[in-house]
Design brief:
elongated, 358 residues, RNA methyltransferase, alpha/beta, 28% helix, 7-stranded mixed sheet, Rossmann fold, VC0802-like, 2 domains, binds S-adenosylmethionine, 24% strand
Length: 358
Amino acid sequence: MPRPPSDRFQPAGKRKSRPKTDHRARQPAHEYELEVLPGLEHVAATELAAVPLARDIRGLRFWFPGDPERLTRLRSALAAYRIRTWDVPRPRGLLGHQQLGELTEFLQGVLAVGGQTSFRLGAAGKESVVMQRLAEELENALELPYRPEDGQLLIRLRPETDGPGWEVLARTTPKPLSARPWRVCNMNGGLNATLAYATHKLAGQRDVDRIFNPMCGSGTLLIERDLLGPSDALVGVDLDPAAVACARTNIEAAGRQIEVAQIDALHTGLAARSFDLIVADLPWGDAIGTHGGNAALYPAFLGEMHRLLSRQGRLAVITHEIRLFEGLLTGSTQWNARELLQVASGGHHPKVYLLNRR
Ligand SMILES: C[S@@+](CC[C@H](N)C(=O)[O-])C[C@H]1O[C@@H](n2cnc3c(N)ncnc32)[C@H](O)[C@@H]1O
């Protein structure tokens, strides 16, 4: 049997119907869990705490009786999953007649919101006979094709966190939330958008900031900042004309107006103290740039940003060249620096630093 949601989240009596887009409308509560890049848990928890009606928040797990569409607007999460727990000792138990009926109903609830057109299983041992049986049963019951590699409805199975049963997690959206709709141009070395969001939140968001994004690549940091709210100025540059074209394409797809130019970030010709916030995702020395090149680029970058930053300004830097970067900061007479976070992203473990002029 699946566990029922606790009583206080059940719809109380008959309610007036509300427009579907009103995320504050109470609906039957469901339990959810957010998936995030390891290292961004605290950023996601802060964002989640601001979601109206999210209740019983335990880490990134919570109950929510509002419109699930609201959860698709979370910017720090890779994905949101609806969860249900079954009192079965192993996945085979989900193949029972009653359990399969309940599981189908649970997944239909997710499909009704997410509109996925295929499904896949994400579980240890998904090639096993039991999982294959489950896939076949669900293919029939849901009338949805099973696409083991790229199915849109991602169904994960795992042992219950604090009990003897099994949990089924169903991703609420056909694509991860981190695959932003504005990203129509992909660039090698493009930043995970959830990390871009987190960097801006931790670096501080002020309407009066004049913001510079040197080495903007495909425009991730620019677009994520503009979507957060107004700023006094927002400008990006990149040396590579293909990157500038890519950023412009993405900016247009996002419906934003942000200035991007093909200029060397180290020789912009801009006046001293032009910016209050500089946010940079520097070449990491693998996909983009080389370690040798970075040894020269990084100190030159720090020197020029010191010139461009206002007296009270902030410089946020994302990099995977940790030893090189920290070596430059140790004993620096120009900068005070602190580490904001470190994440695991695409096989890398970049850090984000916040620097202030001494
Ligand atoms: C790690 S990538 C940035 C990726 C970007 N955050 C995104 O999401 O697409 C670094 C970028 O720095 C650019 N770059 C390297 N040296 C530069 C310089 N001196 N001036 C401007 N851009 C530079 C590269 O062309 C590359 O696009």
